[in-house]
Write a structure and sequence with these properties.
Radius of gyration: 17 Å
Order of helices and strands: EEHHEHEEEHEHEEH
Shape: globular
CATH superfamily: SGNH hydrolase
Largest sheet: 5 strands, parallel
Strand content: 15-25%
CATH class: Alpha Beta
CATH architecture: 3-Layer(aba) Sandwich
Helix content: 25-40%
Length: 225
Amino acid sequence: MKKVFLLGDSTCAVKEEEARPETGWGEMFAPYLRDGWTLVNLARNGRSTEMILLEGIFYDCFWQAERGDWVLIQFGHNENKKEVFRYTDPDGKFVFNLCYMAGNLLKKGVHVVFLSPISRRHFENGRAVSTHFGYPEAMRRTAAALGLPFVELTEKTLAILNETGDEESKKWFMNFPAGVYENWPDGKSDDTHLRPEGASWIASLVYEGLRSCKADFLRQEKDEQ
């Protein structure tokens, strides 16, 4: 069976039951695949491009992937964290890591797509603002330089957050009062990670972005789900 691999961070990853209702968008993406394709979600919480190389997560993907498979690569949330073995410079090691991963996969005949990170729900003076520094733009430039498809999600999600508004947009994120979820009796104020509604929203945006890439693993219409 042909495969679609996801390499990314906590916004995409499969969650432990004790973290629910937190949900990665990758958990909601399988229904968008055509019959005969399977989803392999290798996204992990807290990871950067540097970490997935050092920990061997990328190589797990590399050895499993075969000619004609697809790998969707999405990073940018954790790259600017200064911990050793996590931080990358957006115009230096980040680009090098992206090129290294894509180059090795392309040599095997694997299709590669870069996806920019989704925006955090971060509002200032009533407007949602980006917190991802130069990483989304670095991904776009690197995809263009390598001739790879690129799905822009940072500015798109930022625009939708602004359209939806500060309070209403909480419905997509792990931001809720006490007494709503058993796992979080005291509530939570997390504007990075997604609830199921948010994960479904992002998965649909990824689907729409990939349609322009003519990815052969996609269902042709949403109503086929």
